[in-house]
Write a structure and sequence with these properties.
This is Putative Peptidase M20D, amidohydrolase. The chain is α/β, with parallel strands linked by helices. The chain has 9 helices and 16 strands. It binds zinc ion (2 copies). The site of one zinc ion has 4 residues, from loops.
């Protein structure tokens, strides 16, 4: 009798082929045409799957199991980033300026692997498994939101799960946590309107750079003096543009930044806290401002019982020596859109190692994964597919 272990091992070579093909041919969000066609063709070669395109560049495979059970959604994101790859390996990106620098090539290969394992033995599978290869995780408002709001994908789904490979965790480690896991990534854009003039005569101007510098510094007081230390909040001004030369005080300063929270009440309050600082400083110095605040993905809050089941699955699948309780991160994820509609949990699979030189951070031009993590991902999602679909799971 072949065990799941044997079946996954037989898949290893195929997982590498899939991942490397995708890595060589990256496409950014909403433009994943070749990627979706590739996924669709692979899924169509597996027996018993119903394969459709819920949106132009997403692919859904549905497997109806041979036993009674619940409906589970498994999700992989498929998009790449507008980054020019600096890796030299032979399967590096062939598209200049576009790169799989977040590991979504790995997520896609993993879910294809799970589809192959499940479709080979549908008689063992309870309930219904929907496998969604989601477009545009990296581009707001995000592919998940579109799928959830504009398609039938979530109708009748009882539970949802998915994973992110993580180069900052050792390869093969699985990390799960109940409750708040990833932050809401909201965005600010700010224009400070001063009055330009000669660099030698600041007294005749309203200097938007000097005012902007005060704003940048004082926004950190919102974090440290106006919000309790245990209520996580990050405000980062990540772009500040003003002026053109050394002897002209410019008219305006333009800033962009990100605001990260877990707590919905704090998230709602953050725009007022920020505007109060901007308004006060601008008024004090005679400048005016235009503040634009845009809410991004929701915070990702794992359902406790699903996280607990995934923890048990991890302990059985990779063993206690490769299990960690995950730490919450201020990163954002549009997986949170599915969790608005059904209980579920998201988890991490470690992909970092010295041997694979895969400790580079996500979104870095040298980012890569230790490919052994693909097998870990398949084992986890395959076990989750058989467990979370059990009646009464
Ligand atoms: Zn990313
Ligand atoms: Zn990602």
């Amino acid at each position: 009798m072949t065990t799941t272990q044997d079946r996954v091992s037989e898949l290893t070579e195929q997982l590498l082929k899939w991942r490397r093909h995708l890595h060589m041919n990256p496409e950014v969000g909403f433009q994943e045409h070749k990627t979706a066609a590739f996924i669709e063709a692979e899924l169509n070669s597996m027996p018993g799957l119903t394969v459709t395109r819920p949106t132009e560049t997403s692919v859904l495979a549905v497997l109806r199991g041979g036993q009674p059970g619940r409906t589970l959604l498994l999700r992989a994101d498929i998009d790449a980033l507008p980054i020019h790859e600096e890796n030299q390996f032979e399967f590096a990106s062939q598209t200049p300026g576009v790169m799989h620098a977040c590991g979504h090539d790995g997520h896609t290969a993993i879910l294809l692997g799970v589809a192959r394992l499940l479709s080979a033995h549908p008689e063992e599978v309870p309930g219904e498994i929907r496998m969604i290869f989601q477009h545009a995780e990296e581009v707001g408002p995000g592919g998940a939101e579109e799928l959830v709001m504009q398609t039938e994908l979530m109708n009748g789904v009882d539970v949802v799960t998915g994973l992110h490979l993580n180069s900052q965790l050792p390869a093969g480690v699985v990390a799960v946590k109940p409750g708040a896991f990833m932050a809401a990534p909201d965005m600010i854009e700010l224009t400070i309107q001063g009055r330009g003039g000669h660099g030698a005569h600041p007294e005749e101007t309203v200097d938007p750079i000097a005012v902007g510098a005060q704003v940048v510094a004082n926004l950190q007081h919102v974090v440290s003096r106006q919000v309790a230390a245990q209520d996580a909040l990050v405000i980062s001004i990540t772009s500040f543009h003003s002026g053109t030369t050394h002897n002209v005080i410019p008219d305006t300063a333009e800033m962009m930044g990100t605001v990260r929270t877990f707590d919905p009440a704090l998230r709602q309050k953050a725009p007022q806290l920020i505007e109060r600082v901007v308004k006060g400083i601008c008024e004090a110095h005679g400048a005016t401002y235009d503040l634009r605040y845009q809410f991004g993905y929701r915070p990702l809050i794992n359902t406790d019982w699903v996280a607990e089941q995934l923890r048990e699955i991890a302990l059985e699948t990779v063993g206690p020596e490769h299990y960690q309780d995950a730490k919450p991160t201020m990163g954002g994820e549009d997986f949170s859109a599915y969790l608005e509609k059904a209980p579920g949990a998201y988890f991490n699979v470690g992909a970092g190692s010295e041997e694979a030189d895969s400790h580079w951070p996500h979104h870095h031009p040298r980012f890569t994964i230790d490919e052994r993590s693909l097998e870990t991902g398949v084992r986890m999602l395959h076990a989750a597919a058989l467990r979370l679909t059990l009646p009464g799971a």
